[in-house]
Amino acid sequence: MADQLLKQAQDVFEGQIDFEGQKQAESLTTILLIGTGLLALVLGFYQENVYITLWVGLGGTAATAFMVVPPWPLYNESPEKWLPAGSGISGSGIEVDGKKIN
Q1: Phi then psi dihedrals of residue 99, to 5 deg
Q2: How far apart are CA 14 and CA 51, in angstroms?
Q3: Which residue from 59, 75, 76, 91 puts its CA 20 to 30 A from 12's CA?
Q4: Shortest CA distance to 58 belongs to which of 43, 77, 75, 47?
């Protein structure tokens, strides 16, 4: 029972995302930060208030962090299937500096 709870907690805190999820998170971060920056600049310019620019930028950055930092399940929709440990070809005949690598 305790092992099962520990496994569930580990899955939550480890933050498993796949390569496609990393790509999605990076694209989303770029889009949101650019959009937030432009919105903050425009609002601050028209209101002639630098505090509006700073607070809108800070809020957008916090919202972006909330959307991309936690390992949401949508970032792990296509996990890679890794080979089991020790399944490599033994004695494949690779040579490095004239020495055979096993």
Answers
A1: -110, 135
A2: 37
A3: 59
A4: 43
Residue 36's H or E segment, with its range, is helix 19-47
Looking at per-residue confidence, does 12 or 1 come out higher? 1
One-letter amino acid at 73 equals P
Q: What is the per-residue pLDDT across 10-68, written as a single tens digit (0 to 9) for each?
A: 776 777 888 999 999 999 999 999 999 999 999 999 999 999 999 999 999 999 999 99
CB-based contacts of 95: which residues, under 8 Å, 6+ apart?
101
Residues near 44 by beta carbon (within 8 Å), at least 6 away in sequence:
50, 51, 52, 53, 54, 56
As a whole number of angstroms, the distance between CA 22 and CA 49 comes to 36
Q: Which residue has the tokens 């099962």?
A: 4
Q: Where are the alpha helices (DSSP H) in 48-101?
A: 50-68
Residue 68 contacts residue 23 (beta carbons within 8 Å): no
